[in-house]
Amino acid sequence: MNSNLFNKVLENPLSKAGFVIIVSIFLLAMLAPLIAPYDPNDFDVKSILLAPSWQHWMGTDGLGRDVFSRMLYGGRVSLLVGFVAVGISTAIGIILGALAGYYRGWVDTVIMRLVDVMLSIPSFFLILAVIAFLTPSIINIMVVIGLTSWMSVTRLVRAEFLSLNDREFIMASRTLGAKDARIIFSHLLPNSLTPIIVSAVLGVAGAVLMESGLSFLGLGVQPPHASWGNILTDGKEYIQFAWWLSLFPGMAILITVLGYNLLGEGLRDALDPRSEAK
Amino acid sequence: MTTLSLLNTPSIKKTLPLIGLLLASLLLTACSNPQNEAVDYSQQFPVADGGTMVDAMIGEPTGLIFMVSGDSASSAITAKIFNSLLTYNGDLDLKGELAENWSISQDQKTITFTLKKNLKWADGKPLTSHDVLFTWQLITNEATRSPYASDFQLVKKAEAPTPLTFTVTYAQAYAPALDSWASLQILPEHLLKGQDIHTTVFARKPIGSHHYQLDDWQQGEHIKLSRNPLAVLGPAHIEHLVTRIIPDKSAQFLELMAGHIDSMGLDPIKYSRVIPARPALKKKLNLYKELGNSYTYLGFNLKRKPFDDVRVRKAINYAIDKQEIIDGVYLGLGINIASPYKPGTRWSNPTLTPYAYNPEKARSLLKEAGFSDSDGDGVLELNGKPFAFEIVTNQNKEREKSAVIIQRRLKEIGIEVRIRAIEWASFISRFINTGDFDVVILGWGLGLDPDQYNIWHSSQQAPGQFNFVGYHNPKVDELLEKGRTEMNPDRRMAIYHDFAKELLEDSPIVYLSAGYGLTAIHKRIQGVADPVPAAGVGYDSHRWYIPQRYRQNQISEH
């Protein structure tokens, strides 16, 4: 089924583009130490704010550091934050959604009201408020983003469980005396997995944006380490003069988010039976 | 799969046009010029009254009574509305402002100020020595809780025997006294008597006696001042001063380029790279450079190990290449200093030289202090504990960059440094006021009097006080106490030269750089003194004028 799904995703040119973007960004980030022409934190006060050239493909920043190298290492941060944060939020979402969807009744009510409460707080401000109390660091950012963005996954999983719960094969295994855990983990969860994957892929895009936003505000990755968001902040002051400091990280964020969205949409279309008739 | 519609991610089909729009707008902004300026600003015209000058500030004043608000935004405005008894001339010598003259008694304890005749508040009421007495009573009143009260609490007795004379008597001779009277803005008794200074409407509708009076204050937008025809020093030339509140420096710079504001402070990159590279900007902006009375430093928490060891502090001082920071961060627009005074002034000890960059010496000092790299990981240890600390600073690009350079240099001698840059208010409340830090990068903006008792005296270490590095040196304490009571300028100078020497030797802080104040002023503003006098570019701004030809209708003018 999986290779079938994969082919189906690649059939669509947009989602194929998304897939290629994500894979390339992954490779660039993973191979950063091999590709980067300079140490990303190595400054050179004699070559401050140089425009892009053969020596420095994306120019240099306010301390003479090579922007291309910093972009590659910054990409690692973005991807890491995206995956870990989404991993956390998906794990929480699955657990709470499964509990709510399987046991229903008061468990469902309590969890869903919690979701409502969390959703009623604008998530960016919630994250800002939490980060303000903690030391800004990559780990804290990942955890905080994860802990504040599990709500849609919970709703998704709950809805899947509710609709699957009354299906014949679940009835059958229940009649055969299967325990709750077995029903949840062997039957319900595997059958809800595909929408969860789609939501996770789209969630990574959100987390990448969130990390960039926080680093832009100085609450994310701390100097001297690079992240696309803090390269963008450095560029903000000189946007009229040193355009390369704003353009490249801006484009990187845009392309990455676009890539995840295209891939996510492609997955959704491939999995949606109603979009079959093309 | 209907559940997928629960996802709140907008459909890509909807986002694509948006992205297109974004790209198009990026292209548009890249192609458009800020403004097509055809006016030639190189002509000089005779002095003329009228016109509007616009500048900008980052933060809004909390109020316009400086003794209680105390922020730099409010001082920028109140300095144009209120007078002091004394002021400094362009060469930083004291002269009378409200006072015609002053005399000091034989025992050096009593100062008698004689006020100028026929002084008036902007509302036409007479300004007398009773207003001065009232202001002194107000600032020394416990309920006022003014951060500037301590200088005035030393006054044992203040009197206004006649409407034109005001006398103060100190318990003992107090050398910074005259400077303190040059900083105290005199408030009107007839409007403030019996009012609660913290809640009075006067803070938003002040009446002063200086060149300008408040016209209009739109919260979050602008503060508009207009000429005070009754100004005690005579009226200024420019009719209106508008200060727009633009909380972002890059937005301010865009406004400067577009000609919507006439002056702003610049950072070194804008001053020496951005503006010179743009002929259109060079044509309409004058750039001014002045050595400020301030410096940036790396301060140790002296109450924490190992910073209580002078050898460690000296080692770090030797390991930091200050010239590299001045070149790299300030683009050469800074001076390497060895005393906490503005270079070139009498208080700055010319015989002292800064710590040179010498990593070898740094290593041997650390070795002497007991540090060694016993596990070979490149980081020094003392008693098995690696030498690692955190540099905290506020979100100031220059300070962040300095921290990055320092981090690299200290790594080379085996010290692991982490950097944390946080927003100003939480920086002050969480780290400075609690003393919970290892090392900070901060700056001191100094007054004109050499007294630095509140920064270095060991008694000034309570939370919220300025000796937050926890410096305690009996010799320095003694010199600071002596300097405050020595009225003879030459003997006083010798005391502060000794103080600076002791401070350099003890290295409680590492002087990083004394930076230049950099200002751009639109060429349509004429009469700006160049070169900038010692007192700073704006000290005689009441003499600035805008020739009729160069006046424009400002957006903020109705």
Concise structural overview:
The complex is a heterodimer of chains A (about 280) and B (about 550). Chain A has about 280 residues and is an all-alpha fold.
Could you report the average pLDDT of chain A, rounded to the nearest whole number? 87
CATH class of the largest domain in chain B: Alpha Beta
Integer-rounded radius of gyration of chain A: 22 Å
CATH class of chain A, named: Mainly Alpha
User: How many domain regions of chain B?
Assistant: 3
Large-scale geometry of chain A = elongated
The secondary-structure class of chain A comes to mainly alpha
Q: CATH superfamily assignment of chain A?
A: MetI-like
Beta-strand percent range of chain B: 15-25%
- Counted by DSSP, the helix tally of chain A is 12
Any idea what the CATH superfamily of the largest domain in chain B is called?
Answer: Dipeptide-binding Protein, Domain 3
Q: Tell me what the CATH architecture of the largest domain in chain B is.
A: Roll
Draw up the topology in text:
The complex is a heterodimer of chains A (278) and B (558).
Chain A: H1 2-11, H2 13-30, H3 32-35, H4 67-103, H5 105-120, H6 123-133, H7 138-147, H8 151-165, H9 168-175, H10 180-216, H11 228-236, H12 244-271
Chain B: H1 12-31, E1 52-57, H2 66-69, H3 72-81, E2 86-88, E3 94-96, E4 99-104, E5 110-115, H4 129-140, H5 149-153, E6 155-162, E7 165-170, H6 177-183, H7 189-192, E8 212-218, E9 222-227, E10 240-245, H8 249-257, E11 263-265, H9 268-274, H10 279-284, E12 285-291, E13 294-300, H11 310-319, H12 322-329, E14 334-335, H13 359-368, E15 381-382, E16 385-386, E17 388-394, H14 397-412, E18 416-422, H15 424-432, E19 439-445, H16 453-456, H17 474-485, H18 489-506, E20 509-522
Walk me through this protein's architecture.
The complex is a heterodimer of chains A (278) and B (558). Chain A is an all-alpha fold and 278 residues long. Chain A has a single domain, classed as Orthogonal Bundle (MetI-like fold), CATH 1.10.3720. In chain A, 73% of the residues lie in helices and 0% in strands. In chain A, α10 packs antiparallel against α12. The two termini of chain A are 20 Å apart. The relative contact order of chain A is 0.16. Chain B has 18 helices and 20 strands. Chain B has helices at residues 12-31, 66-69, 72-81, 129-140, 149-153, 177-183, 189-192, 249-257, 268-274, 279-284, 310-319, 322-329, 359-368, 397-412, 424-432, 453-456, 474-485, 489-506; strands at 52-57, 86-88, 94-96, 99-104, 110-115, 155-162, 165-170, 212-218, 222-227, 240-245, 263-265, 285-291, 294-300, 334-335, 381-382, 385-386, 388-394, 416-422, 439-445, 509-522. In chain B, the strands form five sheets. In chain B, strands 11, 12, 13, 14, 17, 18, 19 and 20 form an eight-stranded mixed beta sheet that branches. In chain B, α11 (310-319) packs antiparallel against α13 (359-368).
